[in-house]
Every structure is written in structure tokens, then in C-alpha cells.
Amino acid sequence: MTRAQAWIAFLLAAFSVLSYVDRTLLSVAAPSIIREFGLSETQMGIVFSAFTLSYMLLMTPGGRWADRFGPRKVLTVMGLGSGLFTVLVPLGPVLAPAIGFIPAMVLLRLVFGAFTSPLYPASGRMNANWIPLDKRTFVQGIVNSGAGLGGAISPLLFTFLMAAFGWRNSFVMAGLVTIAVAMLWHFTVTDRKASLPTPPEIKPAWGTLLPNRNLQLLTLGYFAVDYFEYIFFYWLYYYLGEIRKVPPSEIAFWATMPFVAWLILMPLGGWWADRAASMWGMRRGYRIVAVTGMTLSVACLLLAMQCESVGAMVSLLSFSFGSCAAADVVFWAATIAISGKQVGAACGIMNTGGNIGGILAPMLTPMLAARYGWSAGLYFGGAIAAIALVCWFFIDSEVAAEV
Prior knowledge:
The protein has one domain: MFS general substrate transporter like domains (Growth Hormone, Chain: A). About 85% of the residues lie in helices and about 0% in strands. The protein contains 15 helices and no strands. Helix 2 (about 40-55) runs antiparallel to helix 14 and helix 11 (about 250-280) runs parallel beside helix 13. The protein is globular, with a radius of gyration of 20 Å.
């Protein structure tokens, strides 16, 4: 890649890292917040899901905005807004006497989710603008793997920061870093001249995109992928400490391992998908990588639930999460491939479907756990993940929409 392409990929990955640091910091702080304010697991799940609700609802408009105004401007606003509302999370207790703690936290997370929503659709549009086809999935894997790096460093970094500065100041520091990266992005990148934003007279082709069979299947499959992944993002730290009784001195280490696997296997899955597509075509190549990743993911989850040893369980869960990540990035590459001229809007539709799963998982998992036990909640997540595997037998990544 050229230096400009590499710099854009780096900054997109940095946005991805910081986005997941900002959103998963709440899961690291959750045990402290639950104890301090006397919350139940289900109440905390509602706060978790508030972010995902607004994030999901504005995902498709965010992708359209990237097509219309260009991903540079949209991602600048995304970084500044999400950083600001990370800084403002400590206002929750301040607002609590007026509207209640849960409503205050839900409100802050709703606005945070709204600002964050264009991140990945706009990144997909920037990828389509700048990155050549034979490197597109690999670069998308690097960008999306930032979520794994953010998830990996959050338990280690914020366990230390919370011990030293408290959970409130930890949110402030994370938000300020996000704002700084947004400013760096704004002043150092451009929308590629050869791929200018969609002209205003070209309206979003919803009538072509929404009925598109391949986009529908990709959206359904990504719903299943996100449901499975969001269990890890929001409940792994709690599960290890409160359910498996891992000592506090060891929780951060074990909770980091699945995200390290994500960080490694997602770009590897992207690289493999690019190679497979060059040898067998996108339809067959993408299918091989996605089906293999989801099969390994479900199998390793089932094995992990049989383990008494924490080390063996976390190792298998890590490979399960990482294998899902290797398949995850192929959904993005396929959506870019089939979406014609409106990559942002199509990526927004797919990711909206994904985040419906992201809304349900944080709430349904503790509900199932309360009634049937935590293993049942995780088994159910594995069953949902299997839906993504099945979808790939009917997806044709080589049929581009005429939009």
C-alpha cells in the first residue's frame, strides 16, 4: 500500500480501538458501579444495551451520511462526539437525584451510541475509496480488529487506572484520547479525489438495497455474529469474576485473552479471505473462510463449557471468539463487494442488523442465566452463532447491486 493508504488504515484502526475502549470500559467498571449504587445484573444490562439501541438506529443513516458528505467529515464528528460523551459518563451520579441513576446513565449512553454509530459504515466507505480490491478484506480486518485490541487492553489498563484514579476519572481520560485522535484524523486525511461523496441528486437506493437477497442474508448472519460477540464484550469480565470466582488479581489477565485472539485472528481471516477470493473467486473464497470460522467458533464454545480448569476454559473461549472474528470481517468485505456505489448505506444496513443482536445479548444473557444458569446463556449464544454459518451457504458475494 501507499503511505497515505497505510496512514488511513492506521487511523481507522485507532478509531476502532478507542471506540471499544470507550464502550467496554463500562463493563470493566460494572462490578464497582453495581456495588456502589446497589444495581441488579438486569439493570446493568439495560444500561449496556442503551448504547447499542441508538448505535443501531442511526447506523444506516450514518452510512448514508458517509456516502453523502464523505467519511472524513462523518468520522471527525463521530470521534469528537463519542469522546465527549465518554468524558461525561461521570455525570450519571450527578444527574441521579433529578431523574434517577439508571435513566441518567441510559441517557448518556444513548447519546454516546448516536455519535458512535457511523464508525464502521464510514470506515467501509473509506476502505472502498482508498484500498485496492486484493487488500480490502485484510485492511478491513486490521480496522475491525481494533475492537479486539480495545477489548484486550481495557481490562488491564482500566483495572489499573480505576485502582489509581477511580472509575470516573478513567472515563474522562479515555474520552480525551478519543477527541485527540479525531482532531488528528480531521487535519491529516482527505476523501479520495477519485471517489468523491455521492452527489446530492443521487438518492439512497433503498428500493434496491433493502430487497437485495445477498444483503438480507449478510444482515441476518451478522445479527448472529454480533449477538455472540457482545456476550464477550459485556459479560465475560463479570462471568469470570462473579460466576467462576477467578481471583481479582487474575481476572484482568484471563479477560484479556479472548480479545488477544480477536486481535490476531481477525486480520488473519481477512488475509486468508483475500487469498481465497483470488484463487476461487469471492463467492467461494469468502464462503470457505466464513464457514470455517463460525464452525470452529461454535465447536470451541461447546468444548469450553465442559472445562473445570479456568485456563482450559478461557483458552477455548478465546479461540471461539477469535474464530468468530475471522468470519466477522468477511461479512464486511462481502457487503462492500455487493453494494455498488453506496457502500456506506449498505454497510449501515448490515451493521444495523448486527447490532440488533448486540442489543439483545447483554439483556437476554443475564435473564437466561437467572432462570437456567450461565452455561445456558452461553449455549444459547452458540446456537445463535450457528445461524451465521448457515447463511453463508446461500450468499453470492460476486453479484453487485445496480445502485
